[in-house]
Amino acid sequence: MPSTGTPFDWADVEVAVPRSSNGPPGIGMAGFRHRVPGRVDIAMVAHPSVTLLIDLADGEGIVHDGPGRRERGSVAVGLLPGDLRTTGHGTGECLQIRLDPAAAAAVLGASSELTGTLATLADVWGRDAARAEDRLRAAPSWDERFAIAAHILGRRLDARPPVDPEVARTWRRTLAGRGRVRVDRLADEVGWSRKRLWSRFRSQLGITPKHAARLVRFDHAARLLAAGHTAADTAARSGYADQSHLHREVKKFTGSTPTALAAAPWLAIDDIAWPTSSPTRPSANATPR
């Protein structure tokens, strides 16, 4: 899980976030620029969102290595990516977009892409992918890039019917309950049978309610580990049966151990790129070039 060679240092990365949170619902964005020439090698950590990584670098670009697949450039990363690494050279730039599963179902247009390890942006957007990349690369500031991305994503959201309200509510309750609300209770809350909820949730979001709960619970555990909690304490706080149960889940989601996950560089940037409670946010007006 940890990077090989020289430890990755986020101090070498400029991070920009949108000034306003009034973008399309269920979508978050952050821009990254590696300002010191050199090798970037970091392990991604599974997150309860579908991730678009828009490669804005000149030259060789970013390489993504997942189980059984390697892709270069812009990609869509599904909800259950497994052991996935991102590497690059030079002073690359990248726009990262997080889509909650309901938004992703519309933006990507196919639930089958939500749980795949890795797909190129061209796989899911066709010719629109290259046009979007060209517009984003040509924009002179992160502010403009965020505006362009919000417009593109907003149009795709408006063009497709939303998921069932019951499915969207079930996902929100799973997040709020940190993956610890039973499926039977969720079904009762939306007035559906367990079988119907399971079927509709899976067909629209590409993941079962049980796997969604496991992913959300893992995400909570990962952040506790990154904050310095022991594996035993994290297991207890996150609803795992014991430390061994936590170890098995971390291994399944990342191919690594709780100790290595706690030091994962990918988690270290979240409070900067994706602030949740801070009254102030990093400026997004920096010129990206």
Automatic annotation (TrEMBL):
Family matches, as Pfam families:
HTH_18
Q: InterPro entries, per this entry?
A: AraC_XylS_family_regulators, Homeodomain-like_sf, HTH_AraC
Q: Which UniProt keywords apply?
A: DNA-binding, Transcription, Transcription regulation
> Where's the HTH araC/xylS-type domain?
165-264
Keyword hit for Transcription regulation: yes
Keyword Magnesium among record annotations: no
PANTHER family from the entry? BLL1074 PROTEIN, HTH-TYPE TRANSCRIPTIONAL ACTIVATOR RHAS-RELATED
Q: What is this protein called?
A: AraC-like DNA-binding protein
Q: Which organism is it from?
A: Actinomadura algeriensis
